[in-house]
Amino acid sequence: MLSIVGSTAMIKVLVMGVSGLLGIMTSRLIIVEFGTDAYAQYGLLATMPNLLPFADLGIAAVVINAVAGSKSPNTDDYVRRAILTALRILMVSGLIFVAISVALYALGWWPTILGNGLMPGGGALAASVCLAIFGLALPLSIGQRILVGMQRTGTQVLSQIVVAPIILLAVLISIAMAAPAGSFLAIFSYIASAVNSIVCLFIAARLISPQLKLAFRAIPRVKKFPGVKASHLALPMLFQMIALPVAMQTDRLLLSHLTTGDQLAQYNLGSQLYGIVIQTIAAAGIALWPIYAKARSDSRIESPLKPTLWFTAGGLALGAALAILSPFVVDFISGGKIQLDGWLIAGFVVFVGLQAAKYPVGMYMTDHVGLRFQTIPIFIMVPLNLGLSWWLIHLIGAGGPIIGSAISVAVCQLGPNIWYVRRDLRKRRMESSTPVMAENP
């Protein structure tokens, strides 16, 4: 387990090192060439997918568990039908998002939704184009789910190395051509993400051949090629993915609506820096999912409690190291135009540690019972986090939302999940130690 997690984390560090360096260059170019307002909108639109993890309707859990639990995923009929079900659902969901993007632009609702961070003029059109590209690329994300299920998370992570160079190159071309692209810079990130999905799709198709090809062919033939039952996993996952963005990813929207000046830009920059650490932890954490799914399939007990301690220590160490370096990095990126206050930095350090702590136990709880248990605390987290963030923004500004998020994660995710895991481990150990009574002849 540790070797897989460690290698995935190292690959993520490599990718984020390259991507982070290129991202810093991109941010500096945007701030210097297009202005702070363009950078604020870029962060607002480029991170919009963080508000939409429910877009796959929870189908990721079905695909990952099916592939991870199969002894022969290349020939397993259930795996093929799980992929087929996912593709059909993702295509429908993607088309719905395209329709929503058109409707929001036609009705002029984007400024109401995104607030003061949206630039006048082309901001609304840029938001619609971003959402449309997101919807069209959604079915392509099936490749990433397959790679995770096959314990090839490292490959999936390595493929992300194409994203930052594409964005930087597009920004450089816009500057060289003196194009008035300030409102449309975020579109480049969506195009780059779509390219990444295509790369993963081709890799997954080769690894699991011929399953993906057969699944694509069977998409329109619903009666002849039925899918699999997905609701027992997809629905709890979907409920979580609806609630989590409202609870965890509305910080920018709150700042956009409740503040003026550079508060949103400060949060964008802090989130960009600490996002490097959070994404590294997430990549290592996701690598645990197929390990626990495989253990369940083999009726083995694999405890996440020790990995939780390691993840927590690693998250806090990385967050603290970045806090020490952040004044120099921020000054370089912004050219002295943006400074991060102590509340914002401290909030991100604590948040990173808590996010790291919750991954091992969360990945253990990816069967239908565990997913269902997580739903209620996450729904409780929505009003708690929104209320805390709203209150703390008025008290301490840009650092308020991330501190509110940290408190909410501790109370509504980490605490309840550890309690569930300890109870479940105790129950499973008792069941495994209970002798099976032989039948009377």
Measure the end-to-end span: 44 Å
The average pLDDT value, as a whole number, equals: 86
Q: Low-confidence spans: pLDDT under 50, at least 5 residues?
A: 436-441
Task: Using the CA coordinates, give the radius of gyration.
Answer: 22 Å
Helix content: over 70%
Please report the number of helical segments.
Answer: 19
**Largest sheet entry:** none
Q: How would you describe this structure to a colleague?
A:
With 441 residues, the protein is mainly α. Helices cover 77% and strands 0% of the residues. It has 19 helices and no strands. Helix 3 packs across helix 15 and helix 9 (163-176) packs antiparallel against helix 10 (186-207). The longest helix is centred in the C-terminal third of the chain and has 34 residues, at 400-433. The radius of gyration is 22 Å and the shape is globular. Residues 436-441 have low confidence and may be disordered.
Give the topology.
Elements: H1 2-34, H2 36-46, H3 59-69, H4 77-107, H5 110-114, H6 123-137, H7 142-149, H8 153-159, H9 163-176, H10 186-207, H11 211-218, H12 231-248, H13 251-258, H14 263-286, H15 288-297, H16 305-334, H17 342-364, H18 368-396, H19 400-433
Helix pairs in contact: 1-2, 1-8, 1-9, 1-14, 1-16, 2-10, 2-14, 3-4, 3-7, 3-12, 3-15, 4-6, 4-11, 6-10, 7-8, 7-10, 9-10, 12-18, 13-18, 14-16, 14-17, 15-17, 16-17, 17-19, 18-19
